């Protein structure tokens, strides 16, 4: 019996799945389409966010994409709230997003990371490559970590305290006494009962000088 089109049953979800996949591939422009496709459909099957560049991100002029706060937020979402991430997994996520390998290696070296990577420290050092100073770096981190899309970016003060202390330690030019003085002021004079710190609390308050 000849094979006819009447024997083909197209799943109703297929056109939309292929449409979103095609749009994602065009927007992302991955250098290795097969590997990217495998990562894309694996993410979709797991219910994770697929490795697609945001519309607001400009297309790369080379094979490497620029690291942006938006891409850092995608990385953070992929980490899924874990404090420790295996270096191989992190390297894979970095590669999927077409980010420069030399930047990844630099962050790993500066942070003295080995097989197990403290995600918040890795995020802090990655953000520092975008920020011109510590205040800008912490602003980027807060925007990446914040879950509040309807208002100003904000994170728990305890997280801010950890990140500020770590970045200042790596920077090496800000004394521990200055860091403690700023943290004490913020905790006593700014932080409310919710225990959260907003970006404006340390970027627009003349009494807060993180540098």
UniProtKB/TrEMBL annotation:
<keyword id="KW-0597">Phosphoprotein</keyword>
<dbReference type="GO" id="GO:0044782">
    <property type="term" value="P:cilium organization"/>
</dbReference>
<keyword id="KW-0969">Cilium</keyword>
<comment type="similarity">
    <text>Belongs to the ropporin family.</text>
</comment>
<dbReference type="InterPro" id="IPR047844">
    <property type="entry name" value="ROP_DD"/>
</dbReference>
<comment type="function">
    <text>Important for male fertility. With ROPN1L, involved in fibrous sheath integrity and sperm motility, plays a role in PKA-dependent signaling processes required for spermatozoa capacitation.</text>
</comment>
<keyword id="KW-0832">Ubl conjugation</keyword>
<dbReference type="GO" id="GO:0097598">
    <property type="term" value="C:sperm cytoplasmic droplet"/>
</dbReference>
<dbReference type="GO" id="GO:0097228">
    <property type="term" value="C:sperm principal piece"/>
</dbReference>
<dbReference type="GO" id="GO:0061512">
    <property type="term" value="P:protein localization to cilium"/>
</dbReference>
<dbReference type="GO" id="GO:0030317">
    <property type="term" value="P:flagellated sperm motility"/>
</dbReference>
<keyword id="KW-0282">Flagellum</keyword>
<protein>
    <submittedName>
        <fullName>Ropporin-1-like</fullName>
    </submittedName>
</protein>
<dbReference type="GO" id="GO:0048240">
    <property type="term" value="P:sperm capacitation"/>
</dbReference>
<keyword id="KW-0966">Cell projection</keyword>
């Amino acid at each position: 019996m000849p094979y006819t089109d009447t024997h083909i049953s197209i799943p109703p979800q297929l056109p939309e799945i292929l449409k979103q996949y095609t749009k994602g591939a065009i927007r992302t422009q991955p250098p290795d389409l097969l590997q990217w496709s495998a990562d894309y459909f694996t993410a979709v099957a797991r219910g994770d966010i697929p490795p697609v560049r945001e519309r607001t991100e400009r297309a790369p002029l080379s094979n490497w994409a620029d690291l942006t706060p938006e891409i850092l937020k995608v990385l953070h979402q992929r980490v899924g709230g874990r404090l420790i991430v295996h270096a191989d997994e992190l390297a894979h996520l970095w590669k999927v997003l077409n980010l420069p390998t030399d930047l990844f290696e630099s962050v790993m070296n500066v942070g003295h990371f080995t097989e197990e990577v403290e995600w918040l420290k890795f995020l802090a050092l990655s953000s520092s490559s975008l920020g011109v100073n510590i205040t800008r770096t912490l602003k980027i981190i807060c925007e990446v970590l914040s879950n509040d899309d309807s208002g100003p970016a904000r994170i728990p003060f305890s997280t801010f305290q950890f990140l500020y202390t770590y970045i200042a330690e790596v920077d090496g030019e800000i004394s521990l006494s200055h860091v403690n003085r700023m943290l004490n002021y913020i905790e006593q004079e700014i932080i409310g009962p919710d225990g959260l710190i907003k970006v404006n609390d340390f970027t627009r308050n003349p009494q807060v000088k993180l540098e």
